[in-house]
Amino acid sequence: MPDGLHTRLKEISETTGLTQAEIARRGILDQVKELEGESL
């Protein structure tokens, strides 16, 4: 994982109270939704 992304995840987790894994999962889900939206 690039340092910048890891730092961003850490900042978001501290701000939102979510774990970095939860944030990463949500980010991945958002990307999947965008891809599905483009293919429909």
Structure commentary:
This protein has 40 residues and is mostly helical. It has one domain. The protein is 85% helix and 0% strand. The chain has helices at 3-16, 20-39. The radius of gyration is 12 Å and the shape is elongated.
Number of strands: 0
**Count of runs of 4 or more consecutive helical residues:** 2
Question: From the helix content, strand content and strand pairing, which structural class follows?
Answer: mainly alpha
User: Total domains, how many?
Assistant: 1
- Rounded mean pLDDT is 82
Q: Helix-strand pattern, N to C?
A: HH
Radius of gyration: 12 Å
Q: Please report which band the strand proportion falls in: under 5%, 5-15%, 15-25%, 25-35%, 35-45% or over 45%.
A: under 5%
| Helix proportion | over 70%
The end-to-end distance, rounded to whole angstroms, is 31 Å
Low-confidence stretches: none
Largest pleated sheet: none
Shape descriptor: elongated
